[in-house]
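Q: Structure tokens for this one, please.
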Amino acid sequence: MSSPLQRILGDMARIPGVTAIFVVSKEGFVIEKATAGTISIDEDAIAAMLTAVYGSTTQLGEELELGKPETTTLEYPGHYLLVHDMGENLLTVLADRSKAVLGRLRYEVKKQAPRIANVL
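A: Here is the predicted structure, written as tokens:
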């Protein structure tokens, strides 16, 4: 039987183009993940790097007096990576750029983040 968190992440993994979803603590630990198909990722390394990305974007926002980032979107040649601040944790979505619609990804991240935060 799956937990409420696993069900939410599983639903998000079925969004067209989504490759992987991670909930990561700001201390750099993977809390939960869901993948669409098989993907080979060193979860611990990714979690540590995601917290570093969040820290850098937070420092940039403070320096520019913009506040804390809500969602950081990174665009690579073949993929999107969205990192969303959920308070104590980060919601991260990796998606195939040729199959995903960025607007839909942003919408789903903002819609599902409160649900995920409530079940943690």
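A few notes: The chain has three helices and five strands. The two ends are 17 Å apart (CA to CA).
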